[in-house]
Specification:
Elements (H helix, E strand, L loop, with lengths): L8 E3 L3 H27 L2 E2 L13 E2 L21 H28 L2 H6 L8 H12 L14 H24 L2 H6 L1 H6 L3 H40 L1 E3 L3
Antiparallel strand pairs: 1-4, 2-3
Keywords: Cell membrane, Electron transport, Heme, Iron, Membrane, Metal-binding, Transmembrane, Transmembrane helix, Transport
Subcellular location: Cell membrane
GO cellular component, one term: plasma membrane
Length: about 240
């Protein structure tokens, strides 16, 4: 009988990537929960500079949740407390922003962006993207010839989160701050007004929530223990 092959274990994630991943994961979860509690204070969203009870909103919490408030099992804290939610939100917003800045600087220095996340032209072709989708549908998530490399869909999603969604949610949050309006008045104009910034902030937050759901589903399908261990220790067992 042939002896079983020894599993191949490679080092996949650098320490800086792992630290940033877990800090960001905790920060985003707290920010989503506290943000939904803040939304409960005025559960309507508008476009432009101003918004009030009798203005026409493009979104109402009441369209989704009975009573016009997000339920406590989705908010932080679970009972209505706007002041506490704002404290949680501001603290973890600072954690998120400075962690992202540090990660970007370190990833430039250790060439993580260039080595692992650089999207090549051939990876954007319809044929290549269609092949990536078929591979994911068949639960094939890595290239056997180069198991350490990210696949094309991973690169596109990570680039979108790191360079678009996270900076956008940070800067729209800053645009809603009266202090930042005084220091950087151009910022609120960039987003078309305070209420537009609030709406974009909400939309981007929901996109981040959707990314988390899809990300967790793929982690489970790819092998939860192996994937989580790689993000804790850096070591990843190459699937057979």
């Amino acid at each position: 009988m042939a002896e079983p092959e020894t599993p191949i274990v490679i080092r996949r994630h650098a320490l800086t990537t792992r630290l940033w991943h877990w800090i960001t994961a905790i920060s985003v979860i707290v920010l989503l929960g506290s943000g939904l509690m803040i939304l409960n204070a005025h559960g309507q969203l508008y476009w432009g500079q101003y918004g009030a009870n009798y203005d026409q909103p493009w979104f109402r919490v009441a369209w989704i949740f009975e009573g016009g408030r997000v339920p406590g099992w989705l908010t932080i804290p679970s009972t209505y407390n706007l002041a506490l939610a704002r404290r949680w939100h501001l603290f973890f917003a600072l954690v998120l922003a400075f962690a992202l800045l540090a990660f970007m600087l370190m990833s430039l220095l250790n060439r993580h962006f260039q080595r692992d996340l650089r999207v090549r032209a051939k990876e954007l072709t319809p044929a290549h993207l269609a092949e990536e989708v078929r591979a994911h549908a068949a639960l094939r998530f890595h290239d056997p010839a180069n198991p350490r490399a990210y696949n094309g869909l991973q690169k596109l999603s990570y680039v979108a989160v790191i360079f678009v969604l996270l900076p956008l949610v940070i800067f729209t949050g800053l645009a809603m701050s009266p202090g930042m309006n005084a220091a950087w008045p151009w910022l609120i104009d960039l987003f078309g007004g305070r209420q537009s910034a609030r709406s974009i902030h909400f939309i981007v937050a929901m996109l981040l929530a959707m990314f988390i759901v899809v990300h967790l589903a793929l982690v489970i399908l790819a092998g939860a223990w192996n994937e989580v261990r790689s993000m804790i220790t850096g070591k990843w067992k190459v699937p057979e």
